[in-house]
User: What shape does this take?
Amino acid sequence: RASLAHTRYYPCQCAAQRFRMASLSMASARSGYAGSQMAFKASPVRVSVARPVASLVVEAKKVCDLLGTKRNKANNVSFSNKKSRKWQDPNLQQKKVFWAAGQRWVSMKISTRAIKTIEKNGLDSMATAAGIDLWKLPFQDARPERLQYLAENKGKVPVAVNPRAMKNPEKLAASKKLPMYPVYEEGGRIMFIRPGTEEKVFGKKAVEAGSEDLDRELKISISQ
Assistant: This one.
């Protein structure tokens, strides 16, 4: 009661007493740290380590192109008649089917059931029912004209006519540079080289083995 009365009736005296106590505590703190060096510890630096990103694997849909056959949901049944879910995937095969109307081999992903259905109904009717344009699919040309051209020009790279080629015979005779001609690499890519640099590009053994073919290609390319 005395303390309550003191705080109630003497508010100015309580405030002055609190101020006096605070100043005394600050003075004692200064005297304690007098003549000593204060060391401040640096806060630890947080280094964020990048987490390894999981590689994204994208798998193609397991659906037949012609019949639309998808995978089926089924159960694994144990001896104690316990069931667990599983998927029954269709037997899909990447096949080249001969298309008689287009005279080409069309590459498609079809099921074994669709292979039998093609023999019965035909490729044109099944592609029309599935809404597939056979002209836009990857193919291998089987026209007799194309096969004859490939047999006659084996190893030769087809080159379009250059409209900016030099046509003046005097300049052609005075020119010391031989025109570059295209050849196939081992991987099937096309590269342009100059006559006389075959050993640097392909090696001596390869040039000796295919000297006849190289001479024939050189004559064709230079004349063109």
Notes: The chain is about 40% helix and 15% strand. The first strand starts at residue 72 and ends at 77. Strands lie at 72-77, 83-88, 92-99, 104-111, 139-141, 181-184, 190-193. The two ends are 121 Å apart (CA to CA).
